[in-house]
């Protein structure tokens, strides 16, 4: 008497035929695509950062007092061109 395959074995062989295991070549292709995508995103990020730096105003900041203009520095406030205050003379 011939033995018929069970329903489970038919289903599992049909699933294997419909969804074959990925080969090494396709895994390598996915890895290469991911790496290239990440490099592309890094290029976009670097370009954006450089464009911000290039378009920023080119004034120097004084780190000691946190001001960005010479008018606000303590040396400019106490310049000799200003007349001395009456309290300083007494």
What can you see in these coordinates?
With 90 residues, the chain is an all-alpha fold. It is built from 4 helices and no strands. The chain is rod-shaped and about 120 Å long. The chain starts with 6 loop residues before the first helix and ends with a helix. The relative contact order is 0.04.
Any descriptors?
90 residues, mainly alpha, 4 helices, 58% helix, rod-shaped
Q: What does the largest sheet look like?
A: none
General shape? rod-shaped
Bin the helical content.
55-70%
Task: Tell me the Rg in angstroms.
Answer: 37 Å
Secondary-structure element series: HHHH
- N- to C-terminal separation? 126 Å
Strand content: under 5%
Mean pLDDT comes to 73
Counting DSSP E segments of at least 2 residues, the number of strands comes to: 0
**pLDDT < 50 runs, ≥5 residues:** none
- Based on secondary structure, the structural category is mainly alpha
State the helix count.
4
Task: Set down the secondary structure blueprint.
Layout: H1 7-18, H2 24-55, H3 74-77, H4 86-89
Entry summary:
The protein has 90 residues and is mostly helical. The chain has helices spanning 7-18, 24-55, 74-77, 86-89.
């Amino acid at each position: 008497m011939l033995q018929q395959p069970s329903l489970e074995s038919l289903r599992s062989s049909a699933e294997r035929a419909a969804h074959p295991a990925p080969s090494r070549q396709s895994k390598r292709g996915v890895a290469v695509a991911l790496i290239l995508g990440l490099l592309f995103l890094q290029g976009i990020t670097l370009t954006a950062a450089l464009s911000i730096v290039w378009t920023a105003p080119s004034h120097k900041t004084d780190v000691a007092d946190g001001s960005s203009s010479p008018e606000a520095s303590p040396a400019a406030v106490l310049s000799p061109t200003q007349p001395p205050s009456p309290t300083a003379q007494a």
